[in-house]
Amino acid sequence: MNPTEPQLNHFKPMPNGYLIDMDGVIYKGSKLIPGAIELVEQLKRLNHPFLFLTNNSERTAKDLVSKLGHLGLKASWKNFYTAAHCTADFLTRQKPVCSAFVIGEGGLLIALQEAGIAFDSIKPDFVVVGEGRSVSFEVIEKAVRLIANGSCLVATNPDTWCPTENGPRPGTGALAALLESATGKKAYYLGKPNPFMFLTARHRLGLRTLQTIMIGDTMETDIRGAVEIGIQAYLVLTGSTKQEDLVNYAYQPTRVLNSVQDLAMELAGAVEPEPELAKAV
Ligand SMILES: [Mg+2]
Q1: Is the pLDDT of residue 264 over 60?
Q2: What is the CATH architecture assignment of 85-189?
Q3: Cα–ligand 1 centroid distance for 239 (angstroms)
Q4: Cα–Cα–Cα angle for 261, 52, 47, rounded to 5 degrees
Q5: Which residues make up the environment of ion ligand 1, defined by Cβ < 5 Å?
Q6: CA within 20 to 30 Å of 79's CA: 41, 172, 178, 185, which one?
Q7: How is residue 196 annotated by DSSP?
Q8: How far is the centre of ligand 1, averaged over its atoms, from the C-alpha of 57 (Å)?
Q9: What amino acid positions are annotated as catalytic residues?
């Protein structure tokens, strides 16, 4: 190109990027929701950046790649941002050199370890609570004493229960409530709807506010957090919310979709971006 030639197309529109909840949006129990594979295919074809955003801190990003892979959906570990990653990002920003006593599973332990957080059961800065099915009363008792001695209580997410194929099971929020009740101290809750999770996920994708779309099935977490931080919020009706429930909320989603299939079909009609636009993402 002639360097004296005016560059009229300097500001090109950037494509949207998506933050996608998993349970009730991509899968339900051990079954993929129709349209999930097609949605991911279209996002890849159109170079729309995306992250799966989950409040579950139990699994690592690589575990989630395997889980979705078994269901037939191919994704990279780079496409996942869990409440465990969010907690690690938060703690290291609050206190770059810190230690934690952790009640949780591999996903949380590895995220904190990768962030350089030391595990300490004597005088940790934080007691961190996440998803887990192997917690013992002995560990809870230890956590109570550490909190009573000055460690700050942090929960990876506020969900008090988690859906499973066999019915609900207690979630992180329920365990945090037990520790709050036993110590009289309040936990700080990360995960959705805490705006910190949406903000760090958006930054990971290098997106601006108006380019970012959250797709979720739960009003209290996915839609509320998205509305509060000012990004677009697409509600899908394949999970915990029915169309008639919307009248009960002061905040509303930007769009309501029957399922991710609607969006996949919409994107299937979109034209692929020019190569230089794709490179800019
Ligand atoms: Mg969900």
Answers
A1: yes
A2: 3-Layer(aba) Sandwich (3.40)
A3: 6
A4: 70
A5: 21, 23-24, 217-218, 239
A6: 172
A7: H
A8: 14
A9: 21, 23
